[in-house]
Amino acid sequence: MRKNIFFVCLAAVMALVLPQVNHAKELTGQLEIFSWWAGDEGPALDALIEVYKTQNPKVEVVNATVTGGSGVNAKAVLKTRMLGGEPPDSFQVHAGQELIGTWVKADRMEDLTFLFKEQGWFDVFPKGLIKNIGTDDGIWSVPVTIHRSNVLWFSPENLKKWGIEAPATWEDFFIAGDKLKKQGIVPLALAQNWTANHLWESVALGSLGADNWDALWAGKLAFDSDAGVKAWELFGKVLEYTNDDASSLSWQQATDMVIDGRAAFNIMGDWAAGYMSTTKKMVPGEDFGWSASPGTTGQFIFLSDSFGLPKGAPSKDNVLAWLSVIGSLEGSDAFNPLKGSISPRTDSDMSKYNDYGKSAAADFGKDRIVSSLAHGVSANEGFMNDFAAVMEMFLKSRDAAVAAKACQQIAVKNGIGK
Ligand code: GAL
Fold first, then answer.
1. Domain-wise residue ranges, the chain
2. How confident is the model over 364-413, as pLDDT tens digits?
3. Which residue lies with its CA nearest to atom 9 of ligand 1?
4. Which residues contact 71 (CB under 8 A, 6 or more apart)?
5. Given the CA of residue 251, which atom of ligand 1 is nearest to it?
């Protein structure tokens, strides 16, 4: 009897003690997160870091940002650090070829398959997306956003005032654009050179159609084919409707031109929705409107920001905890409503998203999904760097045939479709 009482007491004591003993060791030290989400792009990242800090209060988070839309500056700094053997703990990288054809190919990333299994992510991320972060040898990053690139932004009130509608085709855009020019309004706001790449993909998709767009990146359609040259010709014409000071503006300043009525339209990714609703406190559908960029209705140029674990990261356990937050429902739904993106998780809580987010999610569910060149899905960093030089040249020369030919050369050089 005594013995029994002893065991009952022992069991009770163990029940009290064991959960603490089994509890995973509390993480300490630092976690350096490297991205280009600075300034206006910061609030969503801050919200994500807050979730991490609540779960890991003893870890000091170093939020290392390098300003510059689409990572123009951050990617150069990252390259230097990676090649110099000083990787950040975790860095922002686009799903697709920016990740696979660049860092995975160079054997710089750790395989995260075990984390995907442990967290049940194979069941919540779309298969098409997993393809863009995986190879036969592993899964290489955790996606945090689904952004749309081909969006035309405008102010419904201003369009009314100017007597025009959002154009569904480029022909309609040129008609509206001529009207706007006569009223002293810039038809299409443009910013520094990477936003020209961004505009190019929307124009090229509208000109080529989705099948040809896919064929380009599969190496099945030459960039200097008739269809390829035509896309550059259309792009050249579109540029005639943009502002002269583009190269000195940030993407936010181009959005500002639309907000304050100096320009009618801007084609930008839906981080512009995040900027207008989170930073500028504008109401989607009332203060700003949107539609698919001309000629791309029913098509969704997608891109996805993700974070991975580089080989040699100083605080591996802290990174794994960070990646777990990024891929979690809580983390994803804290981040995306502020960012203008939708969650890559299929079980995301849409009541947390505004009307823009809801409409993007609906389109993502029914549209033809195609890859973004400007944001890392279609091509590796080698091609992207060369493409930026081609763009630079085209902005000066406006020679479509030469640009198309140069694109074909850099496609071959960088193994597009191989
Ligand atoms: C993209 C990125 C977005 C946004 C944008 C502007 O490349 O995927 O999340 O940050 O650049 O900087």
1. 26-146+303-367, 148-302+370-413
2. 999 999 999 999 999 999 999 999 999 999 999 999 999 999 999 999 99
3. 305
4. 36, 92
5. 6
Give the model's pLDDT for residue 3.
46
- Taking the CA of residue 145 as reference, the ligand 1 atom at the shortest distance is 9
User: According to CATH, what is the number of the domain 26-146+303-367?
Assistant: 3.40.190.10
**Could you tell me the pTM of the whole model?**
0.94
* CA–centroid distance for 221 within its chain: 26
Question: For ligand 1, atom 5, which residue shows the shortest CA distance?
Answer: 70
Exposed / middle / buried, residue 59 (Cβ in 10 Å: 0-12, 13-18, 19+)? buried
Q: Would the CATH topology of 26-146+303-367 be identical to that of 148-302+370-413?
A: yes
- Among 126, 98, 144, 199, CA closest to 338: 144
pLDDT tens, position by position, 240-289: 999 999 999 999 999 999 999 999 999 999 999 999 999 999 999 999 99
Nearest to 380 by CA among 219, 204, 146: 219
Mean pLDDT calculated for residue range 147-176? 98
Distance 17 CA to ligand 1 centre (A): 47
DSSP string, 37-61: --GGGHHHHHHHHHHHHHH-TTEEE
pLDDT at 322 over 80: yes
Q: Which residue in this structure is represented by tokens 């996606």? A: 143
Average pLDDT, the chain: 95
Which of 63, 51, 55 lies closest to 26, judged by CA?
A: 55
Test site for ligand 1: of 33, 41, 70, 97, most ligand atoms within 8 A of the Cβ: 70
Report the pocket of ligand 1 as residue ranges, CB < 6 Å.
36-37, 41, 69-71, 145, 147, 269, 271, 303, 305, 375
153: β partners:
266, 290
For the chain, the straight-line distance linking the first and the last C-alpha, in angstroms and rounded, comes to 77
In Å, how far from its chain's centre is CA 205? 18
Name which residue sits closest to atom 8 of ligand 1, judged by CA: 305
> What superfamily would CATH give domain 148-302+370-413?
Periplasmic binding protein-like II (3.40.190.10)
For 84-99, write each residue's pLDDT tens digit.
999 999 999 999 999 9
344 Cα: distance to centroid of ligand 1 (angstroms): 15
- The pLDDT of residue 24 is 64
Pairwise CA distance, residues 191 & 269, whole Å: 13
